[in-house]
Every structure is written in structure tokens, then in C-alpha cells.
Amino acid sequence: MTIKLNKDAAYRAAKPQDKDYKINDGGGLSLRVKADGIKRWMFDYRIDGKRNTLGFGLYPDATLENARRQAEECRRQIAEGIDPGESRRREKAAKQIARKNQTRQNEGLPILDSFADITWQWLDSIAHLTSEKTHTKKTSRIERLAFPLLGDKPLKEIKSVGAD
């Protein structure tokens, strides 16, 4: 079903039917109207031969202008060879890790995959190999000498001296 008049008015007027249907806005953007009356912005695209779909939110909370802006940004990413769905997943994962790290820091724990986090795991794994006194000395040295400089750094950002 394609309506060419005032698009926003057409979207507002769209009523549920027996089956789900979509109103095409062009360039892969459409408004999907479900049989239960829910209206959702969807963006269909192809990258590397695969068909993908992204959701841009529920109408009318997500406006036509906002959906068009998001679709335009996705088309730009596709033109640059970037999968917008994968990009969105990475952003979401990064936000989740940032929230977890904030919670860990509030609890006095090191951030995930930092030098301190991995070092504490290593120290715990080797505790049974030495006496308690030796393990305490080893832990103390690392805490005093390495943690102030490297503690919160992500492990992947740490390079050895002279490394390229």
C-alpha cells in the first residue's frame, strides 16, 4: 500500500487491518502497521548481499523527520561500506560495558579487561602456587608499582617498551 499525499497525515490516518502492512516512505524506510495497531518505523537495506532491517522506534513517538534522519545516516554508512546494524550493535555493547564499568568502579572494583582486572584474575589463579607471604609480597609490589600507572588502562592499549 503506497500513499503519495501528505505522508505524515497518511501515517497518522493508517488504521490496523486483518494483516500487517507497510506504507513505503522511500529509500528503504517504511512505516509498518501491525494488526494490533502498533506502528513502527523500519529501514530495510542490503549489505554484502544480505538483507537486513533496523527499527527506528514507534510512531508517533518517533517522528517522521527523526526516522528520515536515521535512514539517511544509515544510507551514508552503507555507501561507506559500513553495516549500520553492526554499528548499532557495537554502540549498544559499548554502552553496556560503560555501565558495568561504572558500577564496578562504584563498588571499588577495576574496570573490565583493564590491567588491574586481568592482573587480579591472574593473582587469584596463582595464589596456590606460592606461600601466603610470597603471594602477599607479589600482590603488594604490583599494587604499588604497576597499578598507579597501568591499573585502569584497557589491556589491549598496553604495549611493551620498544614494541611497535
Concise account of the structure shown:
It is built from 5 helices and 4 strands. The chain has helices at residues 7-13, 64-79, 84-106, 115-126, 132-150, and strands spanning 21-26, 29-33, 39-47, 50-58.
Beta strand count? 4
Please work out how many helical segments DSSP would assign.
5
Instruction: Provide the low-confidence segments as ranges.
Output: 1-5
> How far is it from the N-terminal to the C-terminal residue, by CA?
59 Å
Order of helices and strands: HEEEEHHHH
Helix content: 40-55%
CATH topology of the largest domain: Double Stranded RNA Binding Domain
What is the CATH C level class of the largest domain, in words?
Alpha Beta
Largest sheet: 4 strands, antiparallel
Quickly count the domains: 2
Average the pLDDT over all residues and give the rounded result.
89
Shape: elongated
Structural class: alpha+beta
Task: Report the β-strand fraction as a percent range.
Answer: 15-25%
> Could you give me the name of the CATH homologous superfamily of the largest domain?
Integrase, DNA-binding domain
CATH architecture of the largest domain: 2-Layer Sandwich
Q: How would you write the strand order of the largest sheet?
A: 1-2-3-4
Rg, nearest Å: 26 Å
